[in-house]
Specification:
Helix content: 40-55%
Strand content: 5-15%
Number of strands: 3
Structural class: alpha+beta
Order of helices and strands: HHEHEEH
Distance between the termini: 59 Å
Length: about 100
Amino acid sequence: MAFDPSTGLGNPLLAEQILQSDLGKKVEQVQGSRSVDLVRFDELFRPVLFRKPIDLSWAPERQLDALLEDESPFIALTRNGKYAALVSKLNLQNEVMKFFVKDEV
């Protein structure tokens, strides 16, 4: 683990890999793996989950309203309630601005 066999260079992730291996031996192999239920998942990841989608099947006005109301840096795009993509809000705003500017020129 200390060196890359193909290049001979040091492994920049050596400390993390040693820690992972040690934790695997001391925790997972002794206690078994632990599952995470939806409540615990929500507790752990609520601060970074993006839960307000823009559905591509919505009317354009509703999509624009949702974009302008959301303060998240990323927005989930869905199509008929199913995940389609995660996009940067800034990129979406730029695309909207291009549309409006193109009409003005």
